[in-house]
Amino acid sequence: MEHLGQFIINHWQLWLAFIVILLLTFINELITQKKKAKEITPQVAVDLINNENAVVVDLRDKEAFTQGHIIDSIHAKSEEFEQKKMDKYKNKPIILVATRAIDAQTLASKIRGQGYQPHVLGGGIAAWQNADLPLVKGK
After folding, report:
1. Is the same domain home to 41 and 28?
2. Which pTM was predicted?
3. What sequence ranges are listed for the domain Rhodanese (predicted)?
4. Pairing relation of β-strands 38-40 and 93-97?
């Protein structure tokens, strides 16, 4: 243990660099977590839909959407947020549903800066089904 103290004294630049890198990594992680949309459970999603009139936006492809989607959900592509087609939903919480959560997280980070209130359904449509919540088939 006495050698560690001597090493730190002799190589203080290395230790300073190590501490700075550790600090920058920590700050970067905090910023990333802050930008990340809140991942919610199906039960929280139901609560948002029922009590706060949240809008469910399904980002999956059209075929997957017609095979089963959440009641009253809107099928949309991420490009529609860039084209201002979704601006009417800026004042409501939005629940993004995708096959992969990373796709929804990426879009959520992007649209948060545009004034939306995005949430991501953790586990996607599979989590909704596993919670024994209903799906609508067809359009």
Report:
1. no
2. 0.74
3. 50-137
4. unpaired
